[in-house]
């Protein structure tokens, strides 16, 4: 009985998260000849789209970090205008240079059970000119309910994105079925959180550690 209850709770949570029908978009044309070295340093999230409608974070940034143990992506954000949060994921570089924009991120949680200690998620570069804008998305599929979830980052090298760069950034969104009108502009008016956390937390954009 207890297992049935847990299953029903998981199914309900998955249904609220995975809201788009069928599998993730296929045959998507990603950024050609992606140059990771030019993607380093800080990107500001200018606009975003979450298919489950989540709107909890503001002042979000993404930054590539080169460390002795590998290349990491630091996702920093302000949660509900109160709490500073950050998540560190190790970037997995494709061996095939022609698939350079088809990246993966692995988050490691030392205190988690072995089967979910390392959690791997896609991180796809749709388009970028490296100096002004970048369009990135992740997609997760649940075979249990035959639905998927998409999160889109429209990134800028500065806190605000100019209209020309925005036009170029949103152009490839039709490939993944995202209407540019559904993009949400990030709120950068309150970037000084009341509580600053030095502890790593789970990212809001990569939620489920195992297929559901």
Write a concise synopsis of the structure shown.
With 212 residues, this protein is mainly beta. It has helices at 2-17, 163-170; strands at residues 20-21, 41-50, 57-67, 70-79, 83-92, 102-108, 118-128, 133-142, 147-156, 184-185, 195-196. Helices cover 11% and strands 40% of the residues.
CATH class: Mainly Beta
Instruction: Tell me which CATH architecture applies here.
Output: Beta Barrel
Query: In total, how many domains does the architecture comprise?
Result: 1
Q: Mind telling me the CATH superfamily name?
A: Calycin beta-barrel core domain
Strand share of the residues?
35-45%
Order of helices and strands: HEEEEEEEEEHEE
The level of helicity is 10-25%
Query: Which regions are unreliable across 5 or more consecutive residues at pLDDT < 50?
Result: 1-13
Count, helices? 2
Please give the structural blueprint.
Elements: H1 2-17, E1 20-21, E2 41-50, E3 57-67, E4 70-79, E5 83-92, E6 102-108, E7 118-128, E8 133-142, E9 147-156, H2 163-170, E10 184-185, E11 195-196
Parallel strand pairs: 5-11
Antiparallel strand pairs: 1-9, 2-3, 2-9, 2-10, 3-4, 4-5, 5-6, 6-7, 7-8, 8-9
What does this structure look like?
The protein has a single domain (2-196), classed as Calycin beta-barrel core domain (Lipocalin, Beta Barrel). The protein contains two helices and eleven strands. The chain has helices at 2-17, 163-170; strands at residues 20-21, 41-50, 57-67, 70-79, 83-92, 102-108, 118-128, 133-142, 147-156, 184-185, 195-196. It has an eight-stranded antiparallel β-barrel. The longest helix is centred in the N-terminal third of the chain and has 16 residues, at 2-17. The model is unreliable at 1-13 (pLDDT under 50).
